[in-house]
Design a protein that fits this description.
Helix content: over 70%
Number of domains: 2
Radius of gyration: 31 Å
Distance between the termini: 78 Å
Number of strands: 0
Largest sheet: none
Strand content: under 5%
Structural class: mainly alpha
């Protein structure tokens, strides 16, 4: 995206939102964060006037990737049990296939031995 288009889009967003709406959003951000009014306005502009994104950025303090890791690492009891069951079944299946191959090789060797 070119800088010109970005600036044009930002002007469009600012024109669509009235000063009263922006002020209302700023007040909400100020209640939820420790930002000064100037910081809140800057952060709001940086987040394309998305109040929730601005507050979320404050709450996570730049650690969104850590939150995603935590969310992906936590699993319910049912998820843990199902995972363990899948691993067990995979091990059983792998062992079965291995035993079948060994048994087939043994039968082949016995047949060769009988033919000699």
């Amino acid at each position: 995206m070119s800088l010109e288009k970005f600036q044009t889009d930002m002007i469009t967003i600012q024109e669509v939102r009235s000063d009263e709406e922006i002020d209302k959003d700023l007040n909400m951000i100020l209640r939820q964060t420790d930002y000064t009014r100037e910081e809140a306005k800057e952060k709001l502009e940086n987040n394309d006037y998305d109040v929730m994104k601005t507050i979320k950025e404050y709450m996570l303090n730049g650690k969104e990737s850590e939150l995603k890791k935590i969310k992906t690492q936590t699993a319910s009891t049912n998820q843990v049990l199902m995972k363990e069951l899948r691993v067990l079944m995979d091990d059983v299946n792998t062992g079965f296939e291995k035993r079948q191959l060994e048994k087939g090789e043994q039968i082949s060797r016995e047949k060769e031995h009988e033919n000699h």
